[in-house]
Every structure is written in structure tokens, then in C-alpha cells.
Amino acid sequence: MPEAVYHSSPNIMSGAPVFIGTRVPVRTLLDYLEAGDSIDEFLEDFPGVKREQAVQFLEQAAKALLGHAA
Between 1.10.287.4070, 1.10.10.10, 1.20.1440.230, 3.50.30.40, what CATH number should domain 6-66 receive? Predict the structure, then answer.
């Protein structure tokens, strides 16, 4: 089982999923990418998020959407 890189708590950002150890919503990363920004730009603006967290989140999201098919 992969290590969790995000969590949700009603006491943090009204329960929005955030990267562990931060108050940065995972949605913010998706918004950056949707706007055409790079992961590097996101990480520059949110230095509390580690690159490994962002990449692992995207990998987990892809698996959730696409299943475990290669």
C-alpha cells in the first residue's frame, strides 16, 4: 500500500484534502496543471509540498481513474 501523501480533516481547510504536513489543498496542484503551469511552478509557490508528494499524488489519482491497467 503506498504511503499517504494527503489527508482530510474537518479541522483543516474545512475538510478539503490537503498535502500531509501542509494546509495546501491537492486541488491547488490540479488547478495549476489545468492552467498549463508546471509542477515546478506549483512547488515554487508552495514550498511546503515536497516534489515526491506531488508526484505520488498524481500517480495515485491516475491509478484511481484508470484502474491498475498499465
Answer: 1.10.10.10
In sign, the C-alpha dihedral spanning 57, 30, 40, 18 is negative
Burial-class residue 43 by CB neighbours within 10 Å (0-12, 13-18, 19+).
middle
Query: 0.85 cut: is pTM over it?
Result: yes
CA distance 34 to 38: 9
pLDDT tens, residue by residue, 23-69: 999 999 999 999 999 999 999 999 999 999 999 999 999 998 888 65
